[in-house]
Give the backbone structure.
Amino acid sequence: MKSISAKIRLFCACAAALLCLPLVCHAQERCGIARDFTFQALERIHDGTNNDVEDGIQLLKQANEMCRSFGDAWYYRSLFERKLNQGSKADYSLSNAKKYGSEAMDQGMNPFTLAAPPEPGLKTLPPIHTKFALIVGISKFHDATLDLHFTSKDATDLSNVLKDPRFGKFPAANVHTLTDNVTQRRVKEELNWLAREAGPDDLVVIFLASHGTSRSQDTAAVSYVVTSDTDLKDQDTLFGTALGMAEISEIVRSRIRARRTVILLDTCHSGAAGVANKERALDVNESAPSESILKDISKGVGRAIVSSSSENQSSYEGTPFQNGYFTHFLVQAMQHDNGMDSIDQIFSFVKDNVSKAAANRATARSTDQRGFDTSGGAKKIAVDLGQTPVLTTSQVGGEIVIGAPAGK
């Protein structure tokens, strides 16, 4: 009898779980939308004006309406409310963040605090203590139609140059390279490693190569990096499973203390027809990070961000190179003058050569035009076939020398 009772209890439990599956899935989708609202709020914080903060609070309220248990939205809401001296509201929001749990709270994220704040009169930095790098290149995705050919090789090639004692001069143990099964969670864990390990006098390099997406009809143009586990089934799953550029920005701005931090973003690639079809269906465009997000990341001392293309362009890979165009010339630039060129000098070389290579490609394959009208139609729109890298720097940013040895 005991055995039969146990079986009945097991059957009832399984049946209840199956009945709840649709509700669980719906809740996960709503929390994916809530996550997107939270990123929109963060990307609206530029100068910390009251208008920015008030707009952000409204978005965070929408996030909590969509998913009450999304602790990050409650946590950021508490910071935004405290910024406006709304103490009792901030306390209530913070209590909910503690109740539901918040990764952002645990990590001490704060969009109003800079880890490397500007220093009046600062013109030079002390010698480098040590160097760290996180190099990410994602070629294989759970959705095989997203696969890229050379992004993983890009990461490996750049890592080898950084670890080469002739050029990058990075301690091998301090260069973390991710190329296989690169999940959203794994990238965030590695970014947190940099935040924990790198001190003010260290040098940090972050390289990301993958698909980049933005929701073009959204005035915030919220940007995402597609990771191996990103689900492009619909917008809700995309927002819930891709890596938000706002997350990267917040870690760099508020947690990475190194006053020499270089971010290299190759986050838009010309893909196969399957990718373009998904973009059209999901009302997203594959694109490089927006100008506003680049400026947000650059706030502080010693920030240099190089994006492989401008907002309205794709980044190319392959013929005639066995790499992405951007990485091909970046590796060449890193090998010049024993790695002692500044970021300004590296950028000048990369920009000139990438632009020329992309122009030659566009001339040879003028019909290779991609991008779709995201207003619901299938009409192709004009896309800039060029590729022009973009450099954004903060105070003392352009003078950073990636290949400088420790002590210099």
Q: What stands out?
A: The first helix runs from residue 2 to 43. The longest strand covers residues 131-137.
